[in-house]
Specification:
By secondary structure, the protein is of the alpha/beta class. Helix content is 29%, strand content 15%. It is built from eleven helices and 13 strands. Strands 3-4-5-6-9-10-11-12-13 form a nine-stranded mixed β-sheet, covered by helices on one side. Strand 12 (323-329), helix 10 (337-347) and strand 13 (352-358) form a beta-alpha-beta unit. Helix 5 crosses helix 6 and helix 7 (266-275) packs parallel to helix 9 (304-312). It starts with 25 loop residues before the first helix and ends in a 34-residue tail after the last helix. Mean pLDDT is 88; it is low at 1-21, 207-213 and 412-418. The protein binds S-adenosyl-L-homocysteine and iron/sulfur cluster. S-adenosyl-L-homocysteine binds at residues 168, 170-171, 226, 230, 261-263, 283, 326, 328, 357, 359-360, 403-404. S-adenosyl-L-homocysteine (SAH) binds next to strand 10 and strand 12.
């Protein structure tokens, strides 16, 4: 069976043992999951106490229906309306009888994030500042590809946390402390709100069943999990959200059209590969532990050798599905030709491509963008060694929507602490 025809994998039960990864302890993974729970989102209820359906797995939705005495087929109907048709109002769900629509509306809600601000760049990039029920905010970006004839495709860059625990020195989000994790419904909600904005409902034909053209006719054809936050420090919610978005009876996005970017949370990379099978991007940015310790502080916990070993065992990595290594070009810091050669040495034998990202400045940032000729020389060395090394054009920089520029003014305010 083609991989694309296979139904999206059910999300595993939380009590299922995690697969073992070489050399990393169960305790370490347990610690990460416990920390994620400490920054859990508030309960998904609206002011009237109605339960949010967005973000429930198929199994959870069936349980919610059982809770009001309804059979599993009701969950299937709702799934179609919510994720295929994009309908939020129970009264518009015409295959459901009126009295049942009323009962559902009394107990449940199908929400979207509030839109605190929306801006569109001169290059077509659109950025939203989304607000959640507790007042916290994140940014989401839609980046259209260039027009090719009639077709425009593009990626939605999704956030996974309000702030970030890590503090990479070149990243604007890193200057904001972690406030909390986003819930699965909040992660899914960013994509659905993007579709609302472009009127892309119901899910365009093609879907993930059509192997070569699964993005045909879709503006929102790809997802990059590269917005605010470290997705692998909020793994449970991210995994649940992506599983929902990949479900072929809903948004039906192929896992090949989803790329998750991590700064290198090694113990969770194996799980991501085994359970989600999405494309992996790794924020490398330096070729020695000394420099990486300084600019990506997580490297002190998971140094380069461990990170690259986790990449080598990432399931599905092949020449057809290469791991992307992101490399932000910082003038005079990490952009020398010797570093390009060392990069090639580190990647030897790995199915990889290198995305060179000219540093995007933000107010008060401590670095300068590498000179274009230096970026070109770096790219040539990597290219000559057989690794594709596109230089990423900054998109939406006039609206501070480019890589690493996202930040909100959210304050650290926990549901319990205030
Ligand atoms: N936390 C994850 C995903 C979000 S960051 C991660 O670090 O991978 C997405 C990408 O933007 C990362 O590669 C990150 O290193 C890069 N980035 C951060 N700040 C940047 C900046 N100012 N200019 C260019 N790229 C930046
Ligand atoms: Fe967090 Fe990624 Fe920014 Fe580092 S680059 S601070 S991991 S969002």
């Amino acid at each position: 069976m083609s991989d694309l025809a296979r139904p999206a994998r059910a999300f595993p039960a939380a009590d299922r043992p995690l697969p073992a990864a070489d050399g990393l302890t169960e305790a370490e993974r347990g610690r990460i999951l416990a920390k994620a729970a400490a920054f859990a989102p508030p309960p998904a209820l609206d002011k009237a106490g109605r339960r949010e359906l967005l973000g429930l797995s198929r199994e959870e939705l069936a349980e919610a229906m059982a809770g009001i005495g309804e059979k599993p087929f009701r969950a299937k109907q709702l799934w179609h309306w919510i994720y295929h048709q994009g309908v939020r109002d129970f009264a518009a769900m015409t295959t459901i009888a009126k009295p049942m629509q009323i009962r559902l509306a009394e107990a449940f809600t199908v929400g979207r994030p509030g839109i605190a601000a929306e801006q569109t760049s001169v290059d077509g990039t659109r950025k939203w500042l989304f607000r959640w029920r507790d007042g916290q905010q994140v940014e989401t970006v839609y980046i259209p590809e260039d027009e090719r004839g009639e077709t425009v495709r593009g990626a939605v860059c999704i956030s996974t946390q309000v702030g970030c625990t890590l503090s990479c020195t070149f990243c604007h989000t890193g200057t904001q402390r972690l406030v909390r994790n986003l819930g699965a419904g909040e992660i899914v909600g960013q994509f659905l709100a993007g579709r609302d904005s472009y009127g892309e409902w119901p899910t365009p034909k093609g879907g993930s069943r059509d192997k070569d053209n699964d993005e045909e006719g879709r503006k929102l054809s790809n997802i990059v999990v590269m917005g605010m936050g470290e997705p692998l420090y909020n793994y449970e919610n991210v995994a649940k959200a992506l599983t929902i978005l990949m479900d072929h009876e809903g948004v039906a996005l192929s896992r090949r059209r989803i790329t998750l970017s991590t700064s290198g949370v090694v113990p969770m990379m194996d799980r991501c590969g085994a359970e989600l099978g999405v494309n992996l991007a790794v924020s490398l940015h330096a070729v020695t532990d000394e420099l990486r310790n300084a600019i990506v502080p997580l490297n002190r916990k998971y140094p380069l050798a461990e990170l690259l070993a986790a990449c080598r065992r990432y399931p599905g990595a092949s020449n057809a599905r290469r791991i992307t290594f992101e490399y932000v070009m910082l003038r005079g810091v990490n952009d020398s030709e010797a570093e390009a050669r060392e990069l090639v040495r580190l990647l030897r034998g790995l199915p990889a491509k290198v995305n060179l990202i000219p540093f995007n400045p933000w107010p008060g940032s401590p670095y300068e963008t590498s000179r274009p000729d230096q970026v070109r020389r770096f790219a040539e060395i990597v290219n000559a060694a057989g690794y594709s090394s596109p230089i990423r054009r900054p998109r939406g920089s006039d609206i501070l929507a480019a890589c690493g520029q996202l930040k909100t003014e959210s304050e650290r305010k926990r549901a319990t602490g205030g």
